[in-house]
Amino acid sequence: MTEKILYDIETISSNLGLTLESMREIPGMYDTSADTALELCCTLPGTIRSNILKIAVVGAIKSGKTTFINAWLKDDLLKRGAGVVTAIVTRLQRQSTLTARIFLKSWDDINQEIEQALFMFPEKEWNPEKNTPGFDLRRERDRQFLNDFNVDIFSDLSVSEAGLRPESVTITRAVEGYEAVKDLIKPDRSILEFSGPLFETHKKFTGNDSRAFFVRDVALGVTSPGLDPDIEIADCQGSDSTNPFHMVQIQNYLTRANLIIYLISSRTGLRQADMNFLRVIETMGLMENIVFVLNADLNEHENLKDLMSVEHRVRKELTYIKKDPELYTISSLYNLFCDLAPDLSRKNSIILDLWKEDANTTAYLSSMTQRFNSRLVGRLSSERFYLTVANPIERLRQIAFMARQRLSLFSDLLSQDLSKARGAMDRLAEMLETGKKLEAIMDNSIEGAVDQLEREIQKEANALFDPLQGTIAKDVAHFIGGCKIDISLYESKLLHHGFENTLYLMFQELKSALDTFMTQTINARVLGFIHDQEKAIEGYFKTLYRSYDINPHEISPVKDQDHQPETAPGRKIVPIDLRTIKGILGLSLPTEAFVTRYNARIRVSAMAKFGLFSLGDIIGRLMNRRRYTPGVSALSASEKKIKQEALRSVVNHLEAYQKSVTRDYLIPLLEAVSRDFKDKLVARCRVCDVEIETMEGVIALDQASKKAQSRTLDAMAAGLTKIVKKIESLPVQYLN
């Protein structure tokens, strides 16, 4: 239905555009407002087609996200069971041929990421020559250092309570993947493309941890008929990644997604990692967009009763996050195997047959799959329709109304009855004067609204970000103050690696904890703040729009019943469409602001403490006191200085973050919304934008010219009648 309506809209846009073009033949009939309408008719089809619905598939590692997407596509296109813990978000859209685009990092991206993993490590260890500043993975010396360093210094400390240490993972993957990708990485970011028979090659990057480290993003074009051409699905890698910056990539996509499908494995149920991430989504203000799927592992459940008990428990636990959660229990692997049955391996065919023996369970899962698919299709179709169809229909209805008004007006102006023409002129002058007054009032109101909203945005931002009184700064200070580092774990490292290397390990532990706190708690709150500000902008202008409930008939130049148009914009145009506006501006959240950069003063302050303790040791020896090792005491003292400087770095980061979010995102969005809002209001009250002198010239035309132009009007009238009927024939039940 939607696809047919989209085709009809494109046809109507084209025909209306031709009608507007024909206005040029009559002096005064084509003006700036007609030109704006023509531009809309030309651009509307492309705008509609480019408005892609985004669906994010999220969940913990091994929850079955990739299998779920493969089952949706009814094809085993994505590598299953890879468990890649990277920042990759794999996006899929329907295309005519299988195509994979791998967006690679640049050498600068890679080296900067490694330098962050080495932050606080003494540069003299990996750059003894001092004549080649900065780390470069392309240098054999630097790669050898990473290899020796990773084996030596981490050893028993490579795993923390949170899992693998992020810096250890970064270094390991950089070293392991280098040889495979060294000839593919460029000085600038680049793209690899695999299409047709080479499509499967992309799995070497998306299914391999080491190669995936060098990838920024993946976009796949698939030919599956199960994927609507106007929908994008994103496989967001494990939400329980130990690297906090991978969470940033997921958060960034979620802010742009129309729907979030959160997968929970029936094998594990809701884990702490799930609850943590769902709290993040809740803080971001996105719970209204979420649907839950309990992905059933049929090998883990004896019967339907066992599976239902897990479903009941998960549903109950989800109520702590969201009231009345929308939960569906399905088996992605079972659905995929059923679709691929003729082509399954012998082993998988046997597994499928065994599963089918439990008729009760498979029947329940099939019915739930049908319910899920029906609900999903309905939800997406509804959102797709209102986002990309309902509003354009009303815009076209308005343009048709404007054209009919002009047609009626110029029919009177070209009339041989001079009194009738003069009456039309008087009505036109009255309409133009009324329109100017309304526009002046709107200008003042909109300007005042923008000023007020801008002040409110700045006020809310200050309350959140202020380095002294802001709630975020206070929470960060509280977290850093309460973050305890067990110095005893590093005592054995002091003798073998020395103070500087051990200090590096201690700092990386603090940095990892702080980065995780920033991404999961603080950034989520900031995204929630941005979400709230967007809603406030949207709500404010919707309210303002209702106060300008302009009826075009009231300012129409046509008053008598004989000339009333057959159609008028009987339904309101959606006043605010943030998604479209952001798309036109290319406006997106400043993702770089998510990443805290730590100041080199941390190292200087920490080393200064070690110098004091070392001086005390020398003085003690000269005075023949008992010899002692200053390292442990210095580490303890350095911890305090590290925390102080880390807090300073975060505060500086927050100040820059505030400017970036307000100056580069919210304020430009507000200004764009106000411009779009005004354009829509002006279009409702401006049927014509002509000079009275031009209209006097129309009345003064000789009879032959009037007759010729009247024939043009008759042709336009016939065309408009067909267009109006086509608009009215669209399924208006979807617009109510």
What would you say this structure looks like, in words?
The chain has 736 residues and is an alpha/beta fold. The chain contains 23 helices and 11 strands. It has helices spanning 2-22, 32-50, 65-73, 107-117, 123-126, 140-154, 166-181, 203-206, 209-212, 244-254, 272-283, 304-318, 332-339, 346-356, 359-413, 418-465, 471-482, 491-547, 578-585, 601-622, 631-685, 692-699, 703-729, and strands spanning 53-59, 89-94, 99-104, 159-160, 163-164, 190-195, 215-222, 231-236, 259-265, 290-295, 327-330. The strands form 2 sheets. Strands 6-3-7-2-8-1-9-10-11 form a 9-stranded mixed β-sheet, with helices on both faces. α1 runs antiparallel to α23, α3 (65-73) runs parallel beside α13 (332-339) and α6 packs antiparallel against α7. The two termini are 16 Å apart.
How would you describe the shape?
globular
- Tally of separate helices: 23
Strand content: 5-15%
As laid out across the biggest beta sheet, the strand order is 6-3-7-2-8-1-9-10-11
Distance between the termini: 16 Å
Find the structural class using helix and strand composition.
alpha/beta
Number of strands: 11
**Low-confidence stretches at least 5 residues in length (pLDDT < 50)?**
552-572, 615-623
Q: Helicity level, as a percent range?
A: 55-70%
User: Whole-number radius of gyration?
Assistant: 33 Å
Query: Mean pLDDT, rounded to whole units?
Result: 79
Biggest pleated-sheet summary? 9 strands, mixed
